[in-house]
Amino acid sequence: MTYYLKPIGFLTLIFLLLIIYSCGEEQPKVAINNTTITNGYNEQHRPQFHFTPEANWMNDPNGMFYYEGKHHLFYQYFPDSTVWGPMHWGHAQSEDLVHWEHLPIGLYPDSIGCIFSGGAVVDNNNTSKLGTTEKPPIVATFTHHDFVGEKAKTNDFQKQSIAYSLDGGYKWTKYKDNPVIPNTEKIKDFRDPKVVWHEDSQKWILVLAAYDRVKFYSSPNLTDWEFLSDFAIKGDKRLWECPDLFPMKVEGANEKKWVLIVSIQKEAPNEGTATSYFVGEFDGKAFKCDIKNQKWLDWGTDNYAFVTWNNIPKDDGRILGIGWMSNWQYAQIVPTEKWRSAMTMTRELKLLNINGDYQIYSTPVKEFQKLRGKSTAFGQMDIKEEKVLQGSFVPSQAEFDFSVNLKKTTAATFGIKFKNDVGEYFVIKFNKKNGKMYVDRTKSNSNKFSEDFYKKIHSAPINFNQEELKIRLFMDAASAEIFIDDGAINFTSILFPSKKFDKISLLVEDGNLNLNESRIYPLNSIWNK
Ligand code: FRU
Question: CA-CA distance, 227 to 187, in Å (whole number)?
Fold first, then answer.
Protein backbone atom coordinates (compact mmCIF):
# COMPACT_ATOMS: atom_id res chain seq x y z
CA MET A 1 0.00 0.00 0.00
CA THR A 2 3.01 2.28 -0.13
CA TYR A 3 1.55 4.10 -3.11
CA TYR A 4 -1.14 5.74 -1.02
CA LEU A 5 1.36 7.28 1.29
CA LYS A 6 4.11 8.24 -1.11
CA PRO A 7 3.29 11.85 -1.84
CA ILE A 8 2.79 13.06 1.70
CA GLY A 9 6.13 12.51 3.43
CA PHE A 10 5.82 13.64 7.02
CA LEU A 11 2.06 13.05 7.18
CA THR A 12 2.81 9.52 6.09
CA LEU A 13 4.42 8.70 9.37
CA ILE A 14 1.61 10.11 11.44
CA PHE A 15 -0.99 8.22 9.47
CA LEU A 16 0.91 5.00 9.47
CA LEU A 17 0.93 5.17 13.25
CA LEU A 18 -2.71 6.12 13.33
CA ILE A 19 -3.60 3.30 10.98
CA ILE A 20 -1.72 0.69 12.98
CA TYR A 21 -3.38 1.70 16.20
CA SER A 22 -6.85 2.32 14.91
CA CYS A 23 -7.55 -0.63 12.61
CA GLY A 24 -8.28 -3.96 14.03
CA GLU A 25 -10.64 -2.55 16.63
CA GLU A 26 -14.23 -1.50 16.30
CA GLN A 27 -14.23 2.26 15.74
CA PRO A 28 -16.31 4.48 18.00
CA LYS A 29 -19.51 5.22 16.16
CA VAL A 30 -19.06 8.92 15.69
CA ALA A 31 -22.44 10.14 14.63
CA ILE A 32 -21.85 12.43 11.73
CA ASN A 33 -25.08 13.87 10.64
CA ASN A 34 -24.18 15.73 7.54
CA THR A 35 -27.49 15.51 5.80
CA THR A 36 -27.80 19.28 5.98
CA ILE A 37 -25.24 21.23 4.09
CA THR A 38 -24.59 24.21 6.29
CA ASN A 39 -21.67 25.84 4.51
CA GLY A 40 -23.36 26.60 1.19
CA TYR A 41 -20.93 24.24 -0.51
CA ASN A 42 -19.14 27.07 -2.23
CA GLU A 43 -15.62 26.96 -0.86
CA GLN A 44 -12.78 27.41 -3.34
CA HIS A 45 -12.66 24.47 -5.83
CA ARG A 46 -15.93 22.96 -4.51
CA PRO A 47 -17.64 21.15 -7.41
CA GLN A 48 -21.18 22.39 -7.96
CA PHE A 49 -22.69 19.42 -9.81
CA HIS A 50 -20.49 16.55 -8.70
CA PHE A 51 -20.76 14.48 -5.57
CA THR A 52 -18.25 15.40 -2.86
CA PRO A 53 -18.29 14.50 0.84
CA GLU A 54 -18.95 17.51 2.99
CA ALA A 55 -15.58 17.03 4.67
CA ASN A 56 -12.54 14.77 4.62
CA TRP A 57 -11.13 12.08 2.41
CA MET A 58 -12.99 10.07 -0.23
CA ASN A 59 -11.81 7.60 -2.89
CA ASP A 60 -13.55 4.77 -4.81
CA PRO A 61 -17.31 4.50 -5.22
CA ASN A 62 -18.55 1.33 -3.49
CA GLY A 63 -21.67 -0.80 -3.01
CA MET A 64 -24.00 1.04 -5.36
CA PHE A 65 -27.54 -0.32 -5.67
CA TYR A 66 -31.05 0.93 -6.37
CA TYR A 67 -33.84 0.17 -3.97
CA GLU A 68 -37.32 1.64 -3.52
CA GLY A 69 -36.74 4.89 -5.37
CA LYS A 70 -33.22 5.60 -4.12
CA HIS A 71 -29.87 5.16 -5.78
CA HIS A 72 -27.42 4.40 -3.01
CA LEU A 73 -23.78 5.34 -3.25
CA PHE A 74 -21.16 4.24 -0.74
CA TYR A 75 -17.56 5.33 -0.98
CA GLN A 76 -14.14 4.80 0.52
CA TYR A 77 -14.08 7.33 3.30
CA PHE A 78 -11.74 8.43 6.06
CA PRO A 79 -13.77 10.67 8.35
CA ASP A 80 -10.81 11.97 10.35
CA SER A 81 -8.60 13.55 7.72
CA THR A 82 -8.30 14.88 4.18
CA VAL A 83 -5.76 12.19 3.29
CA TRP A 84 -6.28 8.44 3.01
CA GLY A 85 -6.50 6.51 6.27
CA PRO A 86 -8.44 3.60 7.84
CA MET A 87 -11.27 3.10 5.43
CA HIS A 88 -14.98 3.28 6.19
CA TRP A 89 -17.86 3.24 3.74
CA GLY A 90 -19.34 6.74 3.53
CA HIS A 91 -22.94 6.81 2.33
CA ALA A 92 -25.19 9.01 0.20
CA GLN A 93 -28.39 8.53 -1.77
CA SER A 94 -30.09 10.13 -4.71
CA GLU A 95 -33.46 9.94 -6.38
CA ASP A 96 -32.23 11.22 -9.71
CA LEU A 97 -28.48 10.32 -9.84
CA VAL A 98 -27.71 14.05 -9.85
CA HIS A 99 -28.74 15.50 -6.46
CA TRP A 100 -27.25 13.72 -3.44
CA GLU A 101 -28.22 13.49 0.18
CA HIS A 102 -25.45 12.72 2.65
CA LEU A 103 -26.17 9.92 5.10
CA PRO A 104 -24.37 8.61 8.18
CA ILE A 105 -21.42 6.27 7.58
CA GLY A 106 -22.54 2.82 6.40
CA LEU A 107 -19.69 0.53 7.43
CA TYR A 108 -17.04 1.00 10.11
CA PRO A 109 -13.77 -0.87 10.61
CA ASP A 110 -14.02 -3.80 13.04
CA SER A 111 -11.85 -6.47 14.64
CA ILE A 112 -11.03 -8.06 11.25
CA GLY A 113 -9.91 -4.83 9.63
CA CYS A 114 -10.84 -1.67 7.80
CA ILE A 115 -13.41 -1.66 5.01
CA PHE A 116 -11.90 -1.51 1.54
CA SER A 117 -13.78 -1.38 -1.75
CA GLY A 118 -16.53 -3.70 -2.95
CA GLY A 119 -20.10 -3.88 -4.17
CA ALA A 120 -23.63 -4.53 -2.97
CA VAL A 121 -26.57 -6.47 -4.38
CA VAL A 122 -30.24 -6.57 -3.56
CA ASP A 123 -30.94 -10.24 -2.79
CA ASN A 124 -34.51 -10.11 -4.09
CA ASN A 125 -35.12 -13.86 -3.69
CA ASN A 126 -33.51 -13.98 -0.26
CA THR A 127 -31.02 -16.61 -1.46
CA SER A 128 -28.82 -15.69 1.50
CA LYS A 129 -31.64 -16.29 3.99
CA LEU A 130 -30.46 -13.18 5.75
CA GLY A 131 -33.86 -11.49 5.28
CA THR A 132 -37.20 -12.37 3.71
CA THR A 133 -38.52 -12.11 0.16
CA GLU A 134 -40.92 -9.36 1.30
CA LYS A 135 -38.06 -7.37 2.81
CA PRO A 136 -35.04 -8.59 0.82
CA PRO A 137 -31.64 -8.32 2.39
CA ILE A 138 -29.17 -6.02 0.71
CA VAL A 139 -25.78 -7.67 0.83
CA ALA A 140 -22.54 -5.72 0.63
CA THR A 141 -19.32 -7.49 -0.34
CA PHE A 142 -16.10 -5.77 0.69
CA THR A 143 -12.48 -6.39 1.58
CA HIS A 144 -11.44 -6.47 5.20
CA HIS A 145 -7.95 -5.00 5.30
CA ASP A 146 -5.94 -5.66 8.44
CA PHE A 147 -3.13 -3.15 8.89
CA VAL A 148 -1.59 -5.11 11.75
CA GLY A 149 -1.23 -8.13 9.46
CA GLU A 150 0.10 -5.91 6.70
CA LYS A 151 2.77 -4.53 9.00
CA ALA A 152 3.68 -8.04 10.15
CA LYS A 153 3.92 -9.03 6.43
CA THR A 154 1.51 -11.95 6.85
CA ASN A 155 0.40 -11.48 3.20
CA ASP A 156 -3.10 -12.67 4.04
CA PHE A 157 -4.24 -9.35 5.45
CA GLN A 158 -6.92 -8.83 2.77
CA LYS A 159 -10.03 -11.05 2.96
CA GLN A 160 -13.52 -10.83 1.54
CA SER A 161 -16.43 -10.27 3.88
CA ILE A 162 -20.10 -9.39 3.72
CA ALA A 163 -22.56 -7.22 5.61
CA TYR A 164 -26.31 -7.01 5.17
CA SER A 165 -29.05 -4.49 5.59
CA LEU A 166 -32.69 -5.30 6.26
CA ASP A 167 -33.95 -1.73 6.11
CA GLY A 168 -33.13 -0.80 2.53
CA GLY A 169 -29.46 0.04 3.02
CA TYR A 170 -29.31 2.33 6.06
CA LYS A 171 -28.37 0.03 8.95
CA TRP A 172 -25.79 -2.68 8.33
CA THR A 173 -24.88 -5.84 10.20
CA LYS A 174 -21.62 -7.63 9.55
CA TYR A 175 -22.10 -11.33 8.78
CA LYS A 176 -21.25 -13.56 11.73
CA ASP A 177 -18.90 -15.89 9.81
CA ASN A 178 -16.71 -13.29 8.09
CA PRO A 179 -14.54 -13.55 6.11
CA VAL A 180 -16.55 -15.46 3.50
CA ILE A 181 -13.51 -15.74 1.21
CA PRO A 182 -10.34 -16.10 3.27
CA ASN A 183 -6.96 -15.44 1.72
CA THR A 184 -5.64 -19.00 1.76
CA GLU A 185 -3.09 -18.40 -1.00
CA LYS A 186 -1.70 -15.41 0.88
CA ILE A 187 -2.02 -12.94 -1.97
CA LYS A 188 -0.94 -9.47 -0.86
CA ASP A 189 -3.30 -7.64 -3.21
CA PHE A 190 -6.57 -9.54 -2.92
CA ARG A 191 -9.49 -7.19 -2.90
CA ASP A 192 -12.53 -5.30 -4.18
CA PRO A 193 -15.19 -8.06 -4.50
CA LYS A 194 -18.19 -7.19 -6.64
CA VAL A 195 -21.12 -9.46 -7.33
CA VAL A 196 -23.57 -10.00 -10.18
CA TRP A 197 -26.44 -12.47 -10.61
CA HIS A 198 -25.83 -15.00 -13.42
CA GLU A 199 -29.22 -15.97 -14.73
CA ASP A 200 -28.15 -19.06 -16.76
CA SER A 201 -26.45 -20.85 -13.88
CA GLN A 202 -28.77 -19.32 -11.24
CA LYS A 203 -25.74 -18.29 -9.22
CA TRP A 204 -24.09 -15.21 -7.88
CA ILE A 205 -20.73 -14.48 -9.47
CA LEU A 206 -18.09 -12.57 -7.55
CA VAL A 207 -15.11 -10.91 -9.19
CA LEU A 208 -12.13 -9.61 -7.26
CA ALA A 209 -8.71 -8.26 -8.12
CA ALA A 210 -5.71 -10.40 -7.17
CA TYR A 211 -2.65 -8.30 -8.08
CA ASP A 212 -2.32 -8.80 -11.87
CA ARG A 213 -5.55 -10.71 -12.50
CA VAL A 214 -9.25 -11.03 -11.80
CA LYS A 215 -10.51 -14.06 -9.88
CA PHE A 216 -14.03 -15.40 -10.36
CA TYR A 217 -16.08 -17.18 -7.68
CA SER A 218 -19.67 -18.44 -7.60
CA SER A 219 -22.23 -18.93 -4.87
CA PRO A 220 -25.88 -19.96 -4.59
CA ASN A 221 -26.42 -17.81 -1.50
CA LEU A 222 -23.79 -15.02 -1.19
CA THR A 223 -22.22 -16.69 1.84
CA ASP A 224 -20.60 -19.91 0.49
CA TRP A 225 -18.19 -19.17 -2.31
CA GLU A 226 -16.44 -21.52 -4.71
CA PHE A 227 -13.40 -20.50 -6.78
CA LEU A 228 -14.01 -20.73 -10.54
CA SER A 229 -11.21 -19.24 -12.63
CA ASP A 230 -8.66 -16.50 -13.24
CA PHE A 231 -8.55 -13.93 -16.00
CA ALA A 232 -5.20 -12.28 -16.76
CA ILE A 233 -3.13 -10.89 -19.62
CA LYS A 234 0.03 -12.86 -20.19
CA GLY A 235 3.05 -10.84 -19.13
CA ASP A 236 1.00 -7.99 -17.63
CA LYS A 237 2.40 -7.17 -14.21
CA ARG A 238 0.38 -4.04 -13.53
CA LEU A 239 -1.72 -3.87 -10.38
CA TRP A 240 -5.41 -4.50 -11.13
CA GLU A 241 -8.14 -3.15 -8.87
CA CYS A 242 -11.91 -2.75 -8.57
CA PRO A 243 -13.24 -5.21 -11.18
CA ASP A 244 -16.88 -5.21 -12.23
CA LEU A 245 -18.67 -7.81 -14.38
CA PHE A 246 -22.06 -7.39 -16.03
CA PRO A 247 -23.97 -8.40 -19.16
CA MET A 248 -24.74 -5.77 -21.81
CA LYS A 249 -27.09 -5.76 -24.74
CA VAL A 250 -25.43 -4.68 -27.97
CA GLU A 251 -27.21 -1.57 -29.31
CA GLY A 252 -29.43 -2.29 -32.29
CA ALA A 253 -28.80 -6.04 -32.26
CA ASN A 254 -30.19 -9.11 -30.61
CA GLU A 255 -26.89 -9.88 -28.98
CA LYS A 256 -25.54 -9.98 -25.46
CA LYS A 257 -21.93 -9.63 -24.33
CA TRP A 258 -20.26 -9.63 -20.95
CA VAL A 259 -18.18 -6.66 -19.90
CA LEU A 260 -15.36 -6.87 -17.40
CA ILE A 261 -14.21 -3.54 -16.01
CA VAL A 262 -10.77 -3.40 -14.43
CA SER A 263 -9.03 -0.38 -12.94
CA ILE A 264 -5.31 -0.26 -13.57
CA GLN A 265 -2.99 1.26 -10.99
CA LYS A 266 -0.13 2.30 -13.26
CA GLU A 267 0.76 3.01 -16.85
CA ALA A 268 -2.65 4.26 -17.87
CA PRO A 269 -2.71 6.02 -21.29
CA ASN A 270 -1.96 9.36 -19.69
CA GLU A 271 -0.03 7.97 -16.72
CA GLY A 272 -1.11 7.03 -13.23
CA THR A 273 -4.40 5.27 -12.65
CA ALA A 274 -7.34 4.68 -15.03
CA THR A 275 -10.33 2.43 -15.72
CA SER A 276 -10.23 -0.13 -18.54
CA TYR A 277 -12.62 -2.75 -19.85
CA PHE A 278 -12.80 -5.99 -21.83
CA VAL A 279 -15.79 -7.19 -23.86
CA GLY A 280 -16.22 -10.94 -24.09
CA GLU A 281 -18.22 -13.97 -23.05
CA PHE A 282 -18.94 -15.39 -19.62
CA ASP A 283 -20.35 -18.92 -19.33
CA GLY A 284 -20.86 -19.01 -15.58
CA LYS A 285 -17.31 -20.21 -15.02
CA ALA A 286 -14.75 -18.26 -17.01
CA PHE A 287 -14.48 -14.95 -18.81
CA LYS A 288 -13.16 -15.20 -22.36
CA CYS A 289 -12.24 -12.50 -24.81
CA ASP A 290 -9.49 -11.50 -27.14
CA ILE A 291 -7.37 -10.29 -24.27
CA LYS A 292 -5.25 -7.98 -26.33
CA ASN A 293 -8.41 -6.03 -26.70
CA GLN A 294 -8.23 -4.01 -23.50
CA LYS A 295 -9.90 -0.65 -23.93
CA TRP A 296 -10.04 2.53 -21.86
CA LEU A 297 -13.36 3.60 -20.47
CA ASP A 298 -11.97 7.09 -20.11
CA TRP A 299 -8.77 8.48 -21.63
CA GLY A 300 -8.38 11.21 -19.03
CA THR A 301 -6.33 11.01 -15.87
CA ASP A 302 -9.25 11.28 -13.47
CA ASN A 303 -11.79 8.51 -13.69
CA TYR A 304 -10.69 5.63 -11.50
CA ALA A 305 -12.46 2.65 -9.94
CA PHE A 306 -15.51 3.22 -12.13
CA VAL A 307 -18.19 0.63 -11.26
CA THR A 308 -21.89 0.12 -11.91
CA TRP A 309 -25.17 0.16 -9.98
CA ASN A 310 -26.95 -3.06 -9.03
CA ASN A 311 -30.71 -3.67 -9.24
CA ILE A 312 -31.60 -0.89 -11.68
CA PRO A 313 -35.32 -1.56 -12.42
CA LYS A 314 -36.08 -3.41 -15.67
CA ASP A 315 -38.22 -0.55 -16.97
CA ASP A 316 -35.21 1.73 -16.65
CA GLY A 317 -32.82 -0.89 -18.01
CA ARG A 318 -29.77 1.36 -18.18
CA ILE A 319 -26.25 0.39 -17.16
CA LEU A 320 -25.28 3.20 -14.81
CA GLY A 321 -21.97 3.86 -13.14
CA ILE A 322 -19.74 6.40 -11.48
CA GLY A 323 -15.98 6.79 -11.01
CA TRP A 324 -13.66 8.42 -8.52
CA MET A 325 -12.56 11.67 -10.16
CA SER A 326 -8.91 11.59 -9.20
CA ASN A 327 -5.65 9.71 -9.66
CA TRP A 328 -3.46 8.08 -7.02
CA GLN A 329 -0.50 10.08 -8.41
CA TYR A 330 -1.70 13.24 -6.68
CA ALA A 331 -5.10 12.57 -5.09
CA GLN A 332 -3.88 13.30 -1.57
CA ILE A 333 -2.27 16.63 -2.31
CA VAL A 334 -4.78 18.41 -4.51
CA PRO A 335 -5.43 21.91 -3.15
CA THR A 336 -8.83 21.44 -1.51
CA GLU A 337 -8.83 22.19 2.18
CA LYS A 338 -11.90 20.75 3.76
CA TRP A 339 -12.53 17.64 1.65
CA ARG A 340 -10.59 15.66 -0.93
CA SER A 341 -12.00 14.22 -4.15
CA ALA A 342 -15.20 14.21 -6.11
CA MET A 343 -17.01 11.55 -8.11
CA THR A 344 -17.46 11.83 -11.88
CA MET A 345 -20.92 12.68 -13.17
CA THR A 346 -23.12 9.58 -13.12
CA ARG A 347 -22.79 7.98 -16.55
CA GLU A 348 -24.81 5.68 -18.72
CA LEU A 349 -22.92 2.98 -20.63
CA LYS A 350 -23.94 1.59 -23.99
CA LEU A 351 -22.30 -1.20 -25.95
CA LEU A 352 -21.88 -0.69 -29.70
CA ASN A 353 -20.60 -3.02 -32.36
CA ILE A 354 -18.47 -0.80 -34.61
CA ASN A 355 -17.49 -2.93 -37.61
CA GLY A 356 -17.02 -6.01 -35.46
CA ASP A 357 -15.26 -4.17 -32.67
CA TYR A 358 -17.25 -3.84 -29.44
CA GLN A 359 -16.96 -0.48 -27.75
CA ILE A 360 -18.51 1.12 -24.71
CA TYR A 361 -19.90 4.60 -25.20
CA SER A 362 -20.53 6.57 -22.05
CA THR A 363 -22.38 9.80 -21.49
CA PRO A 364 -23.67 11.69 -18.45
CA VAL A 365 -27.14 10.47 -17.50
CA LYS A 366 -29.95 12.46 -19.10
CA GLU A 367 -31.11 13.60 -15.65
CA PHE A 368 -28.32 16.21 -15.72
CA GLN A 369 -30.43 18.16 -18.22
CA LYS A 370 -32.51 19.26 -15.24
CA LEU A 371 -29.63 21.48 -14.19
CA ARG A 372 -29.63 23.42 -17.45
CA GLY A 373 -30.53 27.09 -17.42
CA LYS A 374 -31.46 29.02 -20.56
CA SER A 375 -28.95 28.23 -23.27
CA THR A 376 -27.01 30.60 -25.45
CA ALA A 377 -27.20 29.34 -29.03
CA PHE A 378 -24.61 30.08 -31.67
CA GLY A 379 -25.75 29.62 -35.24
CA GLN A 380 -23.30 28.39 -37.84
CA MET A 381 -19.88 29.93 -37.27
CA ASP A 382 -16.86 30.17 -39.48
CA ILE A 383 -13.81 31.22 -37.51
CA LYS A 384 -10.36 32.20 -38.71
CA GLU A 385 -8.90 33.50 -35.47
CA GLU A 386 -9.49 33.18 -31.73
CA LYS A 387 -13.11 34.02 -30.89
CA VAL A 388 -14.41 34.74 -27.40
CA LEU A 389 -17.84 33.24 -26.73
CA GLN A 390 -20.23 35.27 -24.63
CA GLY A 391 -23.72 34.71 -23.36
CA SER A 392 -25.74 34.02 -20.26
CA PHE A 393 -23.47 31.39 -18.73
CA VAL A 394 -20.51 31.21 -16.40
CA PRO A 395 -17.75 29.20 -18.16
CA SER A 396 -16.71 27.45 -14.95
CA GLN A 397 -20.17 25.94 -14.43
CA ALA A 398 -21.66 25.05 -17.77
CA GLU A 399 -22.35 22.45 -20.43
CA PHE A 400 -20.90 23.06 -23.89
CA ASP A 401 -22.36 21.38 -26.93
CA PHE A 402 -20.33 21.97 -30.08
CA SER A 403 -20.58 20.37 -33.46
CA VAL A 404 -17.64 20.90 -35.82
CA ASN A 405 -18.31 20.60 -39.52
CA LEU A 406 -15.21 18.62 -40.49
CA LYS A 407 -15.82 18.87 -44.23
CA LYS A 408 -15.87 22.66 -44.16
CA THR A 409 -13.01 23.01 -41.66
CA THR A 410 -9.64 23.50 -43.31
CA ALA A 411 -7.51 24.12 -40.20
CA ALA A 412 -5.59 21.10 -38.96
CA THR A 413 -5.66 22.45 -35.40
CA PHE A 414 -8.55 23.97 -33.51
CA GLY A 415 -9.66 24.03 -29.92
CA ILE A 416 -11.36 25.49 -26.90
CA LYS A 417 -9.63 27.62 -24.28
CA PHE A 418 -10.76 28.53 -20.75
CA LYS A 419 -8.96 31.27 -18.90
CA ASN A 420 -9.08 33.65 -15.97
CA ASP A 421 -7.55 37.09 -15.44
CA VAL A 422 -4.53 35.84 -13.51
CA GLY A 423 -3.04 34.18 -16.57
CA GLU A 424 -4.11 30.60 -15.86
CA TYR A 425 -5.72 28.56 -18.62
CA PHE A 426 -6.95 25.15 -19.71
CA VAL A 427 -6.99 24.14 -23.37
CA ILE A 428 -8.58 21.31 -25.35
CA LYS A 429 -7.08 21.04 -28.82
CA PHE A 430 -7.90 18.86 -31.78
CA ASN A 431 -5.31 17.92 -34.35
CA LYS A 432 -6.76 16.52 -37.56
CA LYS A 433 -3.33 15.69 -38.96
CA ASN A 434 -2.34 13.23 -36.27
CA GLY A 435 -5.86 12.19 -35.27
CA LYS A 436 -5.65 13.32 -31.67
CA MET A 437 -7.22 15.47 -29.01
CA TYR A 438 -4.90 17.19 -26.54
CA VAL A 439 -5.91 18.26 -23.06
CA ASP A 440 -3.59 20.80 -21.52
CA ARG A 441 -3.90 21.66 -17.83
CA THR A 442 -0.19 22.43 -17.43
CA LYS A 443 -0.94 26.16 -16.94
CA SER A 444 -4.23 25.76 -15.09
CA ASN A 445 -2.74 27.01 -11.82
CA SER A 446 0.48 28.92 -11.27
CA ASN A 447 0.95 27.32 -7.86
CA LYS A 448 2.05 23.84 -8.88
CA PHE A 449 1.17 21.50 -6.03
CA SER A 450 2.33 18.31 -7.78
CA GLU A 451 4.87 17.63 -10.50
CA ASP A 452 2.88 14.69 -11.90
CA PHE A 453 -0.26 16.78 -12.18
CA TYR A 454 1.29 19.51 -14.29
CA LYS A 455 4.05 17.83 -16.19
CA LYS A 456 2.35 16.67 -19.39
CA ILE A 457 -0.19 17.56 -22.00
CA HIS A 458 -2.53 14.56 -22.23
CA SER A 459 -4.04 13.05 -25.37
CA ALA A 460 -6.64 10.68 -26.80
CA PRO A 461 -7.30 9.30 -30.31
CA ILE A 462 -10.07 10.98 -32.31
CA ASN A 463 -11.78 9.92 -35.50
CA PHE A 464 -11.75 12.88 -37.91
CA ASN A 465 -12.88 10.74 -40.81
CA GLN A 466 -16.50 11.77 -40.65
CA GLU A 467 -18.80 14.66 -41.46
CA GLU A 468 -18.98 16.13 -38.02
CA LEU A 469 -17.14 16.03 -34.71
CA LYS A 470 -19.44 16.28 -31.69
CA ILE A 471 -17.88 17.77 -28.60
CA ARG A 472 -19.83 17.80 -25.34
CA LEU A 473 -18.05 19.26 -22.38
CA PHE A 474 -19.05 19.78 -18.77
CA MET A 475 -17.02 22.29 -16.81
CA ASP A 476 -17.33 22.44 -13.05
CA ALA A 477 -15.26 24.42 -10.53
CA ALA A 478 -12.54 21.75 -10.49
CA SER A 479 -13.06 19.47 -13.47
CA ALA A 480 -13.65 19.07 -17.19
CA GLU A 481 -15.50 16.05 -18.55
CA ILE A 482 -15.32 15.74 -22.31
CA PHE A 483 -17.55 13.41 -24.33
CA ILE A 484 -16.71 13.07 -28.01
CA ASP A 485 -19.11 11.72 -30.63
CA ASP A 486 -21.92 10.63 -28.30
CA GLY A 487 -19.53 9.16 -25.76
CA ALA A 488 -17.17 7.18 -28.04
CA ILE A 489 -14.28 8.90 -26.31
CA ASN A 490 -14.48 10.13 -22.71
CA PHE A 491 -11.87 12.35 -21.20
CA THR A 492 -12.02 13.41 -17.56
CA SER A 493 -9.54 15.86 -16.12
CA ILE A 494 -9.52 17.67 -12.80
CA LEU A 495 -8.02 21.15 -12.47
CA PHE A 496 -7.70 23.77 -9.75
CA PRO A 497 -7.41 27.31 -11.14
CA SER A 498 -6.74 29.81 -8.35
CA LYS A 499 -9.59 31.94 -9.74
CA LYS A 500 -12.54 30.45 -11.59
CA PHE A 501 -12.26 30.46 -15.37
CA ASP A 502 -14.48 33.24 -16.59
CA LYS A 503 -13.64 33.36 -20.31
CA ILE A 504 -14.01 30.81 -23.04
CA SER A 505 -12.80 31.14 -26.59
CA LEU A 506 -12.54 29.01 -29.69
CA LEU A 507 -9.07 28.63 -31.18
CA VAL A 508 -8.01 27.95 -34.73
CA GLU A 509 -4.66 27.82 -36.51
CA ASP A 510 -3.80 27.97 -40.21
CA GLY A 511 -7.20 27.80 -41.78
CA ASN A 512 -10.82 28.03 -40.73
CA LEU A 513 -12.97 26.28 -38.16
CA ASN A 514 -16.54 25.70 -39.24
CA LEU A 515 -19.19 24.92 -36.64
CA ASN A 516 -22.76 23.78 -37.06
CA GLU A 517 -25.18 25.12 -34.52
CA SER A 518 -23.67 25.04 -31.01
CA ARG A 519 -25.08 25.71 -27.57
CA ILE A 520 -23.88 26.56 -24.10
CA TYR A 521 -26.03 25.94 -21.04
CA PRO A 522 -25.40 27.42 -17.61
CA LEU A 523 -25.77 24.65 -15.02
CA ASN A 524 -27.40 25.09 -11.64
CA SER A 525 -25.70 23.82 -8.54
CA ILE A 526 -27.01 20.51 -7.17
CA TRP A 527 -26.55 21.79 -3.64
CA ASN A 528 -29.16 24.58 -3.83
CA LYS A 529 -32.53 22.96 -3.76
C1 FRU B 1 -8.53 1.62 -5.45
C2 FRU B 1 -8.16 1.02 -4.09
C3 FRU B 1 -8.82 -0.33 -3.91
C4 FRU B 1 -8.88 -0.45 -2.42
C5 FRU B 1 -9.19 0.96 -2.00
C6 FRU B 1 -8.60 1.35 -0.68
O7 FRU B 1 -8.43 2.99 -5.49
O8 FRU B 1 -6.76 0.94 -4.00
O9 FRU B 1 -8.14 -1.38 -4.54
O10 FRU B 1 -9.86 -1.35 -2.00
O11 FRU B 1 -8.66 1.80 -3.01
O12 FRU B 1 -9.07 2.58 -0.27
Answer: 14
